[in-house]
Specification:
elongated, 246 residues, mainly alpha, 2 domains
Length: 246
């Protein structure tokens, strides 16, 4: 799935049928007929992002009203973890509405939502779902990102950087830390020697975002990193400055 058109086709009635099949294995009272019909009636003409939100909204209507119970149902269908740096938008594309579910409906239940984002990220990505929590609970969420930055799971390490990016593609701008980037830079400093390219690119892109909105702070960080002999840190500095000189 490389274009919006090719992505969009995966999020119609076919996804409703796939999710229904998985949900029914753990929640036999799920009204899959009503859910599937609702998607069928509303999905035509919608783009990729709109379709994901539609699925999230319809899941909310058809799962138990209690958020903790419903999110436990959704977590239980996630299956095996993604062992690769790719596959988030191919093999595990079907998890996207679950991330959106947490993003929209989970903001008032921090602990359960963070647990869900962690499990989602091990297969797909929680980079979108985490952003409302960074806005509403910046200190609490940064603390969690610092924990993930030290995780043995490279998907979680990447999330600690990607989720805190200012200009994440397909997401609204995160301006919480523009003028005071120290909390984000503390996360990036933990990751600056990461050997996984998936993580390194995220760190570099995060700093590149800051070069565009808080140049001096980002420049100071990169100049400090450029003193390092670590090959991974050097790679991040070079990638971050490939289009912007410091």
């Amino acid at each position: 799935m490389t274009t919006d058109k090719s992505i969009t086709q995966y999020f119609g009635v076919n996804l409703a049928e796939l999710l229904s099949e998985k949900i029914l294995t753990v929640f036999s009272n799920f009204d899959y007929v009503s859910y599937t019909n609702a998607i069928s009636l509303k999905v035509n003409g919608l783009g990729y992002k709109q379709r994901i939100e539609l699925h999230a909204n319809e899941l909310y209507k058809h799962l138990p009203e209690d958020y903790e119970r419903s999110i436990n149902i959704l977590i239980s269908i996630l299956g095996e973890e993604n062992q690769k740096e790719t596959g988030m938008f191919t093999d595990f594309y079907w998890i996207m509405p679950i991330g959106k579910y947490v993003e929209i409906f989970g903001i008032d239940n921090f602990d359960f939502s963070i647990r869900a984002i962690e499990e989602i990220t091990k297969r797909n990505t929680g980079e979108y779902a985490i952003r409302p929590f960074l806005r509403k609970f910046p200190d609490q969420t940064i603390y969690q990102l610092l924990i993930w930055a030290k995780s043995n799971n490279f998907h979680l390490r990447r999330l600690s950087s990607e989720g805190s990016r200012l200009k994440l593609p397909w997401a609204t701008k995160l301006d919480t830390f523009i003028d005071k980037p120290e909390p984000v830079f503390k996360i990036l400093d933990i990751l600056k020697e990461d050997s996984v390219k998936f993580v390194k690119k995220s760190v570099a892109n995060n700093v590149t975002d800051y070069l565009k909105v808080n140049y001096e702070a980002a420049r100071t960080l990169l100049l400090e990193w450029s003193k390092s002999d670590n090959t991974n840190t050097k790679w991040i500095v070079n990638y971050a400055t490939r289009k912007i000189s410091i």
